[in-house]
Amino acid sequence: MPHNVRLIETLSMMMIITSVAAVESHNLKRAAAAYCLQALLICGLILAFAVGNPALYVWALVALVTKAILTPWFILRYISRTGAEEVRPIVGFGPSVVLVSVILFSFYKLTHTYVHVLAPTPESAAGVFRTNLAVALTVFVLGIYAILSRRDAIKTVIGLCLLENAVHLSLVSLAPNLRETALIGIATEVVVTVYLLLYVISGIREQLGTTDTFELAELHW
Amino acid sequence: MEQITPSILTQAVFLVPAGAGLLAWLLGRLRRVLSEVLGLLGAAGALVISCLLLSQTLQGRVLTGWGLELRVDSLSSLLVMLISGVGLPAALFSVRYMRHRRLTDSSGRDITDARLPAFYGLFLLFLATMLWGCVTNNIIMLYVAVEATTIASGLLVAFYWDRRSLEAGYKYLMLLTVGITFALFACVLLYAAASRYLPGVDAMLISELRGVADRIPRSVVIFVVAFFVVGFGTKAGIAPFHPWLPDAHAEAPSPVSALLSGVMIKMAAYALARTVTIFFPTYHVLTAFVVVLGGFTMLLGGVMALAQDDLKRLLAYSSVSQMGYVIMGIGFGSYLGVYGGLFHLLTHAAAKALLFLSVGAVIYATSARSISQLGGLGRRMPVTAVCFLVGAFSISGLPPFAGFMSKLTIFLAGANSGMWAAVGVAVFTSLLTLVVVIRAGQAVFWGEPRSEAAASEAIREAPASLWVAMAALAGVCVLLGVYPQLAYPVLNRAALSIAGVLAGH
Question: Scanning A89, A110, B14, B349, which has its CA 20 to 30 A from the CA of A23?
Fold first, then answer.
């Protein structure tokens, strides 16, 4: 069991708050900032785990560069060229906040209560690991919600980043002894995927004059 | 008994095309022809190394590299051979095809030559990542490799940079990345569960995970299998996770479509087979689940193909359908079922790559791809017509073509397992496929032209470099049909490597 249990749990729970901020903020710059803050929280979590496992310092550095610096930089650079206002989502702000709250509380409660069903080891179903796994799954579902309910292509990219952060949190908790090569591979791919998606979205904006995914309706069936 | 042999070929098979791709990208900026030559050399190099790997594994060796990080057994060498075997004809086809459609920037300036180095660089990188995925023995790196194939091919899908290809590219990158994130979750859970029983890095090695699969808690297995099915299944085009596939396969340049439909989805099916089948001996009910998944996929793909007017979308939906056969075959769980599934993997790769290249030749000649706009091309494009029909007959399961033998094996495996409903669905879908592709072939190559594009006097047979690539694949479809024993040595060993797991060995 790691030493800084209270700190880890606090950082972990803050990941949910930043997820909600990233999903619900209609200003894309603020949403990207919330994502960046979440990435810093992950770095903090890794550092907290690193007290008992110094090999994790490299992991924290990789997460800092890829998640907290490069990815937000790509997103913000793109936003600065195109404008910060999100295309109006499918679900309005009020109903969305209610929906997110319901998803958040019910899913967190469900996963925290029945975490043993998913926990690969008895240790991961106890204490701080239990909280982390429940938070990871909740953030994962919020990411899926963002992708499904948002019309703005940039917002769907931010939703995708939330998914990746959720899996990263589970990685830190369940597989802290992961090799550097695997870790760098995972972290790098996220950055490259985000970059490519933004590149393609910029092409869509050039062609269509919008980043509204509802306009992408040329191909169906 | 397996003979473990360290070999540099395990690294060379993906590093050679990756290196050639990098050079094609860099040197192609100096002279366009350099990128084309390097594109061909990289693909040819991969094929030569694949042949060497295959010959080694046929002698009973299991080749390893970077410790046990890379591992090539018969199953891996079959996939590696398949990928590079389709890669070279696709690269050859690209040379004339990619010069033909001129690309312009927003000011109307021709940028085709400037973009070709990027095409060949990404093309070879795409090949390399698929090959890497088939030789890695590390479950986390398997995820990394599968996602790397998406990254490498994403810009190839959007290569024409018009409204349709950009839409397809966005959906492709987004849906596949979301899907594959589920697979990463499954990898993490599996690794964490296995690390109780396996020391250190061993808990990541697929070859070692088999041995402890029965000790992983049942509830965790359910989530791991479900996440793998969503993750790798999305990439493999399994219904209902297939919506990205018709868009991407239709909008990509035809040689890329040949790779996407011919081999990429097979590589994902391989990833699924490698991971999910380790649980089959302990959880036999999973085999029934996989059979149902396969049946649903083949039927849905077949029905959707029936409704298409766009030739490439028709072929893409047909790929969804044919993947159902592969999945069903493996799902039967018997040696014969696995053999049939892998045989169909092989025959469909050749036939579907052939069909996409044939349609590419039609597009090259007419600039049209809607069935309702074409017609009467058989007289002026006889080689293309014959190649298309060979591919069409093969995927429909008509004798004496390769698809007949592989489908027959799957039908027999289903009958042997007593799963008559599944056999009924498979036979029905095969008839449906026959209707779909023969109707399309008849409409495109016979009758009267239905548009000015198809009636043009300028329409000629595709250039030699295009039809040579098609003829090579058509030859494979015929050869494996009349002499299926040719593939027996590799298929037998590959099937045993999965069926052995199923039997608990």
Answer: A110
Yes or no, beta carbons of A120 and B220 under 8 Å apart? yes
**Alpha-carbon distance values, B145 to A32, A110, A185, B135 (Å):** 28, 33, 9, 10
Give the residues across from A85 on adjacent strands.
Answer: A27
- The partner residue sitting opposite B192, judged by closest CB among A147, A175, A196, is A175
Answer yes or no: are the C-beta atoms of B281 and B501 closer than 8 Å: yes
Buried b (16+ CB within 10 A) or exposed e, B365-397: bbebbbbebbbbbbebbebbbbbbbbbbbbbbb
CB count in 10 Å sphere of residue B288:
15
SS3 at position A85: strand
Number of Cβ within 10 Å of residue B70's Cβ equals: 24
How far apart (Å, rounded) are the C-alpha atoms in residues B274 and B64?
Answer: 17
Q: pLDDT: is B210 or B121 the higher one? A: B121
C-beta of residue B412 within 8 angstroms of C-beta of residue B420 = no
- pLDDT per residue as tens digits for the range B39-81: 999 999 999 999 999 999 999 899 999 988 999 999 999 999 9
Nearest to B193 among A121, A193, A216 (CB): A121
Assess: ipTM above 0.85.
yes
Element (H, E) at B473: helix B464-482
Pick from A159, A173, A181, A186: which is nearest to A63 by CA?
A186
* Count of CB pairs separated by less than 8 Å, A with B: 125
In a mutational test of the A interface, the residue from B104, B138, B144 whose CB has the highest number of chain A CBs within 10 Å is: B144
Question: Any idea what DSSP says for residue B368?
Answer: -
Chain B interface includes A199 (CB < 8 A): yes
CA angle at A14 for the pair A12 and A16, rounded to the nearest 5°: 90
Confidence at residue B501, expressed as pLDDT on a 0 to 100 scale: 54
pTM: 0.93
Tokens representing A60 are: 């924290």
Question: What is the nearest CA distance from A45 to chain B, expressed in angstroms?
Answer: 18
Could you tell me the end-to-end alpha-carbon distance of chain A, in angstroms, rounded to an integer?
52
Instruction: List the structure tokens of B340.
Output: 């049939």
Choose among A193, A206, A219: nearest Cβ to B247. Answer: A219
pLDDT tens digit sequence for B407-451: 999 999 999 999 999 999 999 999 999 999 999 999 999 988 888
pLDDT 10s digits, B35-50: 999 999 999 999 999 9
Q: Which long-range contacts (CB under 8 A, 24 or more apart) does B50-55 make?
A: B50/B13, B50/B77, B50/B80, B50/B81, B50/B83, B50/B84, B50/B85, B50/B131, B51/B81, B52/B9, B53/B7, B53/B9, B53/B10, B53/B13, B53/B77, B53/B80, B53/B81, B54/B78, B54/B80, B54/B81, B54/B490
- Is the CB of residue A196 less than 8 Å away from at least one CB of chain B? yes
Quote the Cα angle for A32-A33-A38, to 5°. Answer: 95
Asked whether the beta carbons of residue A207 and residue B166 sit closer than 8 angstroms, the reply is yes
Helix ranges (DSSP H) in A25-88: 28-50, 56-63, 71-82
Q: What span, in angstroms and rounded, lies between the C-alpha atoms of B58 and B69?
A: 21
Inter-chain CB proximity A119 and B200 less than 8 Å: no
B111 touches chain A (CB under 8 A): no
> Is any Cβ of chain B less than 8 angstroms from the Cβ of A189?
yes
Closest chain B residue by Cα to residue A202? B166
Question: What residues in B contact A121, CB-CB < 8 Å?
Answer: 192-193, 195-196
